[in-house]
Amino acid sequence: MAVFYSLSYRWQKKRYGKAASKTPLAGIYQATAPVSRSLMRENRFLVVDCEMSGLDANRSQLLSIGWVVIENARITHASGKHLLIHADRGAGDSTRIHGLHDATIAGAKSAAAAITLLAKQVPGSVLVFHHAPLDLRFLQQTAYENFRCPLLFGYVDTMLIEQRRLQLQGAESGLRLAQCRERYGLPPISGHHNAMTDARATAELLLAQTSYLGGAGRVSLCRMGIQCSRNQYVRGV
Amino acid sequence: MVAETNDVQNFIAVQALFQHLAESNLEYLSNNIYVAYQKSGGELEVGTGEAKPVGLVMVRSGSLEIRDAQHNLIDRLSAGDFFIPRVLAQAPAEMIVRVLEDCLYYELSESAFQSIRSNDEDISRLCDTYARSYQADASKSDNAPAPAMRKQHAFTDSYLDQSVKDYMTAPAFCASPNITIRRAAQIMTNNKISSLLITEDERLVGIMTDRDLRTRVVAKGVADTEPVSGVMTPKPHCIDMRGRLHQAQLVMMSSGIHHLPVVDRDVPVGMLGMSDIMRANNLEPLSLTRGINNATTVAELAAVAAKLPDLVVKLIERDTRPYEVGEIITSLSDALTRRLLRLAETVYGKPPCTWAWLAFGSQARQEQMLGSDQDNALIYGNNADDSADAYFAPFARFVNDGLDACGIHRCPGDIMASNPKWRMTLAGWQKTFNYWIQERSPKALMHASIFFDMRPVAGDRELVNHLRGYVLAKARSNTIFLALMTQNALEHSPPLGFFKQFVLEKDGDHNHTLDLKKRGTITIVDIARNYSLAAAISEVNTISRLQAMERAGVMSRELVASLVDAHEFIAGIRLQAQGEKFHAGDTVDNQLDPKTLSPLVRHQLKEAFQLVRQAQAAMKARFGGGVL
């Protein structure tokens, strides 16, 4: 797993490094990869959550990105960021789910600007998602459409961590964010359900999971199942 | 960017410490907050050596406890509570902050904490009070001739430094893992022991306790013909016979067990119970009993009895189970009563006839708590004549006054032996009970529910056994009476509203609290009493009644096990709250504000109440038919 992660990281870097050099993504291709043997405590984590107008990356688009930083196994509350993205295709049917209306979104950032801001946070960080494939598909699609190269980073998936933990215990249980949080005694997510509250909720879940895996001073990225972001989800590559 | 609903800021904005702050200050604080998590059993660092010094820690969810180096409980924290690491680090004794339930907490940076503290008078005052409470606590334990546990340097010569060998119960009762559960239970019953060691080739491989029988056999419905190896606790904690009592106590407290096998190089040689450790303590119940038995005046007795609340608080701190605390308190009340009766005899001379002193209510059930009132009476043998009452009137007053002086207050309803109404011959009592059982007035029912829990404390036990047998036979055959008792019992109902919300009392001084006795333990006591009247069960203690009901087949083993657990849980919370009130110097009562409980405990309490409600419904279906 760890070997595969570092191979695939190097391969991605080689393949897109040149193309990225003239884009806002250059910084993340110049940075060094997170070391898979390093410990939770030694790493900076960027916990990310996205809201989209639908589940299909070909027809739907990113509406917002939220993130928060974990350093020294503590969530830096002030690092929380919430970017709204201008939707040329409109918020569509999903309005009911996340409460983002066309009117709110009008005047928000362009997708390119949002990805640029996110890319500034990425170097030196391990990214964290709850159910990474969906968010990754949209992030990579948007990055590729705007800059002709995907985002490059190491990431962990709190849903996979949870799934593995439950399998070890031989338990079958829900993997939705709220269900996972409940198992660790985390409080119910309060307020409106949006990309930033979900990113914070995921960050808290990661702290809880690593506390149970042995503590931030003992759990390595490898143990957390770090993977490399690839372009596999991108249409036309 | 948009205006965000911000969980951290929303949370701190409603906490006592920060709720008065302006929006801008709240924002400043939340920008300097770091969120961290620790699972249960873990410890939080209280030193200030961190790269990023922490000014204040606030619990967001879960719970923590603070103990000093001797493991004395200093404080318990749940959502919204805070502590200041620097204060703990500077306290005279080393403090340990342990996580009780998975805990999400906020750390406020030292710089932000100092800045808000110097700018806000209220916070500064609160933090000073907080800091002082730790200083004051420490100075108190240094000056006062305090119990040994508080003093670090006195540890070496304290009672806890004594050898395990001197206090264990020997020899150890051992059995092979192949014997059946029933056989194990028989061995335990025959030898009057509450735990059995399971050995293979003389080596300890497991332990089987009363609790295991309850939780792993009865509650799960395991057949008693199964081998004991399937339900025992394998590889139990144990201690070497050369160990010290404080080590044993640590093991027992940290792993929540009440029986610790004692071994000599892996071979079991004895057993150490929580009560053995208590026996070693100078405040243990036995030494109080000795003090009571040596007292020659009421004043001396009162002086000994004054130590009782301290003992109870210590028992609570050691996580003694509620029913054991109830038994200990009751045994001391019994001892006080007997001593007073003896003193009365020296004052008034020999009684003119056979007699027995009866305890009713909680004392009869061996469930007395702090602040319980007297409920007692006298029964004369049928050989008594008019002179008997002339003798016993001042005699009983002497005892009742004496108990009152010892802190067991007079009964507000005057159910005491000094009241001529409650001094009768056996025949008179039989007639009275008969009247209560036939009469359908509310007053008769109230009396019945008090008087049906009766136990002899001193004198001729046969008189009481006789009376009880008579009453049970009468009550059992009267279905209308049982139905009325059931209806009466249903008037105390668990304090749950629609959707399992707590319904709080708003009467008198107790604004918005739960009455854990009236709406909690008493409901279970009532259920146990009614069923045992119906099945002519002579046990008086609630737990024993429930167990007897299961044996007699009048209640399912699942329901019995659940009710026993619910009773223990509610009684435990009540006891804890009483201990805290006593510590704080408040009046000890049965009230509790559920907000002071952690969310998990609150949830469990609701579950316990829900169960009681179901049991009440079952009782209504069974006995209510006659009138409801």
From TrEMBL, chain B:
SUPFAM superfamilies reported in the protein's UniProt record: cAMP-binding domain-like, CBS-domain pair
Keywords: CBS domain, Repeat
Superkingdom, taxonomy of origin: Bacteria
CDD domains, per the entry: CBS_pair_CAP-ED_NT_Pol-beta-like_DUF294_assoc (cd04587), NT_GlnE_GlnD_like (cd05401)
Transport in keyword set: no
Lineage summary: Bacteria, Pseudomonadati, Pseudomonadota, Gammaproteobacteria, Cellvibrionales
Name by which UniProt lists this protein: CBS domain protein
Entry keyword Isomerase: no
Database matches in InterPro entries: CBS_dom (IPR000644), CBS_dom_sf (IPR046342), CBS_domain-containing (IPR051462), cNMP-bd_dom_sf (IPR018490), DUF294_put_nucleoTrafse_sb-bd (IPR018821), GlnD_Uridyltrans_N (IPR005105), RmlC-like_jellyroll (IPR014710)
Domain CBS: from-to ranges: 168-225, 232-288
Species the sequence originates in: Teredinibacter turnerae (strain ATCC 39867 / T7901)
GO MF, any single term: [protein-PII] uridylyltransferase activity
Annotated Pfam families: CBS, DUF294, DUF294_C
